[in-house]
Design brief:
- This protein is about 65% helix and about 10% strand.
- It has about 110 residues and is mainly alpha-helical.
- The chain has one domain: Multidrug-efflux Transporter Regulator, Chain: A, Domain 2.
- Strand 2 and strand 3 form a beta hairpin.
- The longest helix has about 40 residues.
């Protein structure tokens, strides 16, 4: 990852008024990815939206890290299942359309 796409973790802490330990715990749970450059922690810019979501869950809704992990897993699973439903609907539509064409030529 390019360094310009990375935000120092300590700057995130100052901006969001959170402890660095919170970011470290999120990393320990595998919820965000930290990079170390010259002994400094960085957060990839593309993970800021996710970090903000975790901050709101934890500080605004008082959800602990285990709860955040469970919610994140369930949301990812729901998205995966929704994609499967969409794929299956598309296949059903294709088979329905093909069946309609076939019946027209009988």
């Amino acid at each position: 990852m390019l360094e310009e796409n990375m935000i120092p973790a300590n700057e995130c802490c100052l901006h969001y008024n959170i402890e660095l330990s919170f970011i470290n715990h999120l990393s320990d749970y595998g919820l965000i990815e930290l990079a170390f450059i010259e002994q400094q922690q960085f957060i990839p810019a593309d993970q800021l939206q996710q970090l903000e979501k975790f901050i709101r869950m934890h500080y605004d809704l008082n959800i602990n890290l285990e709860g955040i992990e469970a919610i994140t897993h369930l949301l990812a699973r729901m998205e995966q299942l929704q994609q499967q439903v969409t794929t299956l609907r598309n296949k059903m539509d294709l088979f329905s359309a093909t069946g309609d064409l076939y019946s027209q030529f009988k």
